[in-house]
Amino acid sequence: MKDLILELHQEGIHVLPLQHNGHKFIHPNYSSKFDTGFSTDEIMALLDAGYDNAYAVMHGKCNPFLKALDFDEKNAPGKDLYATWSRIIDPDLLSRLVIEKTRSAGYHVYFLCQAQVTEKALASSATGSEWIACRSAANNCVTYAAPSPGYEYLQGSLFDLQMLTADEMAQLCDVAKQLDEYTGEKNTKSTYLPAVQVPAEYSAAISKFDADCDASFILDLLRQNGWTIGGRVHEKPVNGEKWQYIKVWRPGRLESEPSSGNFWLNRKRLSIFSTSTEFPSFDSGQSFSHTPSRVMYYLNGKSWKAVMRQIEGVAPNMQIELPKVTPMAFPTPTRGGQDVWRVEVKGIIEWAENAGYRWMRMSSTDDTVVQLVRVVDNIIYHCDEKDLQRLYRDEVARNYAGEHESRVLLAFMPQIMKYMAALPNFEGTLMR
Predict the structure, then answer these.
(1) 3-state secondary structure of 15
(2) Chain center to CA of 21
(3) CA-CA distance, 163 to 168, in Å (whole number)?
(4) What band does 337 get if pLDDT is binned at 50, 70 and 90?
(5) pLDDT at res. 242
(6) How far, in Å, CA of 194 to CA of 115, rounded?
(7) The pLDDT of residue 223
(8) How far lies 69's CA from each of 120, 134, 214, in Å?
(9) Which residue pairs from 369-378 have beta carbons closer than 8 angstroms and sit at least 24 positions apart in sequence?
């Protein structure tokens, strides 16, 4: 094991030497080493100190391109996460990955990719237990690695790591996301693209259309926009079910070339493997595949007004009754006294109720400023965008320095509601 640790270090792969006492791994102090890794002298000193029969891969700036998908099978009894995932992945891509089995019957899948991602949780149980995660330089964490006690390589070794493109990494993560069963708070975030937000007044209607539209409509729409649609329905076993998908090719690509993506018929989601800024493979950091409305958004030149016109034109033929589009009719609040704040909050609540949103009950008993600050923290509950709190707190610091925090936060409540209502998973979260 000593020789292996030194060889990996010489190859430029930063690892953490460990000691295994027959029952557990014992770590040296390593919290300050994620940026630089250990020097050769430090590695030698750790080996001499007895940290010499196991090791872990370091995920930090010291290994900027090294990533690992972590399959935690113990949290998903009977799901066979890795087996399901590996059957869906393109076989040629799968053959280029380094794969090991863990001591808890899970799996680590290692690869290199220059694309910067900060996604962590890719798939979780309905109750939030982590199933599949992406470990990367953004996480500052370690993964125990073969041949440490309890770990064994199934394919390749860390000396065989290959560089993947951003699109290839997107495919790995997209398939993992297809296994996600969690509908609550998400911790995903992407640095690829700015967030795409549905205008608040359209949100309820667009969500209804996404849920009820025909899968064939999106395939026809892609075809009309120059995409090539495969002539055969493929099947993949997922969670004991047969998921059906059709391969698609971007305009200008031939069917003899690798496909540009898959359209999953059962979920009405378009997974794209080849990316572009006009029609990216990422759904603005919120997901790795596109809902019907997001497909329409990109095919309509990124215009939500055009999407709504199209939806309103086709919904009757699909027998979809759309909720009424309700414009936001309340003004942005100005600085003032307590009564002004309460009036504006009442207007926000009335608007959201008229737009058809449902409410999450909270323990608050009245709409005081203090309780509204609590609402700000809880409003994230149904939403994917986790940067929102930081963003508007930064806005407070820039424009309202020195004012009482609770009143300042309340001043941004209408803007917060607009942002939240624009997110795809928003159902409404305010106290009554």
Answers:
(1) strand
(2) 37
(3) 10
(4) very low
(5) 81
(6) 16
(7) 94
(8) 9, 5, 34
(9) 369/338, 369/341, 369/406, 369/407, 369/410, 370/406, 371/431, 372/341, 372/345, 372/406, 372/409, 372/410, 372/413, 373/405, 373/406, 373/409, 373/410, 375/429, 375/430, 375/431, 376/409, 376/413, 376/416, 378/429
Q: Indicate the CATH number of 2-164 among 3.30.1490, 1.20.120, 1.20.58, 3.30.2250.
A: 3.30.2250
How many residues are present in the chain? Answer: 432
pTM of the complete model beyond 0.85 = no
Of the candidates 351, 326, 348, which has an alpha carbon nearest to the alpha carbon of residue 201? 326
The domain ranges of the chain are: 2-164, 200-318, 338-421
Q: Which of 174, 204, 401 is nearest to 273 (CA)?
A: 174
Distance of CA 221 to the CA centre of its chain: 26
Among the residues of 190-278, which ranges form H helices?
A: 200-212, 215-224
**Contact assessment for residue 115 and residue 38, using Cβ atoms and an 8 Å cutoff:** no
Specify the amino acid at residue 390.
R
pLDDT digits (tens, 9 = 90+) for 271-302: 876 555 566 655 443 445 788 998 999 888 88
On the question of pLDDT at 309 being above 80, the answer is: yes
